[in-house]
Amino acid sequence: MNAALRSSGKVAAIASEEDDEAIWLGEGPFVVVFDPLDGSRNIDSSIPTGTIFGIYRRLPEADHLPLTEKAAINVLQRGERTVAAGYALYSSATVMCLSVGSGLYGFTLDHSIGEFVYSHHDIRIPERGQIYSLNDARYFDWPSGLQRYIDNIRQGNGQTRKKYSARYICSLVADLHRTVLYGGLAMNPRSHLQLVYEANPLSYLVEQGGGKATDGKRRILEINPIMLHQRLPLFLGSMADIAELVSYGDIQQVHNPGYEV
């Protein structure tokens, strides 16, 4: 992927989960951040994986700086400055969801012609869903607000009075894609997800689809990144479902025991 972005001549700087720091490529107009293989631990068990990317415009005000500093400043842009983002899901079909700032759209790979075809028109995340996605096995590590919220929606005591179901793949792109199509919530209350190349692109896509993205206290796209591999809690999904969750307060998991995989 790095080689393809370099050869395009359009990209000034890149940053990814695989690199320790940002890389300056040249004088192109764009900056690209990406997670090349989300859910990579699932490969051997054939569970869906994905790719996440976000695109910014190069910051000309940083052009006079040394290359390392210039690259870092360009990739640490606030999510509100995103000009395009997308994810690819590798599953029973290869699907790419994309936004360039005017809505959320989906494309499916047609293997017979080797091209992506326009398959999901103007995706709108339902205002409410009835599915939540997070690791229930960690329930006793969660803060009280998150526990109370999950208890209520499981028992049908939330605002909708419907009983919610749990669906958890442990592959962020897959869990989010289901949430985008059917509504509900995809979340991780721990400071686990990477702001720059996971949370920001996915939050941009969710907002373009009419949903909501937060770390439990702040809108994700308003957070100023201070380091490339900065981590935070992430709650994505239906506008009304996320608003109800946040109303409980105390949903970020501060206590974080080591989880062995």
Automatic annotation (TrEMBL):
Top-level lineage group: Eukaryota
Sorted UniProt keywords: Carbohydrate metabolism, Hydrolase
Family matches, as Pfam families: FBPase (PF00316), FBPase_C (PF18913)
Enzyme class at the top of the EC tree: hydrolase
Domain Fructose-1-6-bisphosphatase class I N-terminal residue range list: 2-120
Domain Fructose-1-6-bisphosphatase class 1 C-terminal, first and last residues per copy: 125-247
Catalytic reaction equation(s): beta-D-fructose 1,6-bisphosphate + H2O = beta-D-fructose 6-phosphate + phosphate
InterPro entries documented for this protein: FBPase_C_dom, FBPase_class-1, FBPase_N, FBPtase
EC number annotated for this UniProt entry: 3.1.3.11
UniProt similarity note: Belongs to the FBPase class 1 family.
Protein name in the entry: fructose-bisphosphatase
Organism, scientific name: Sphagnum jensenii
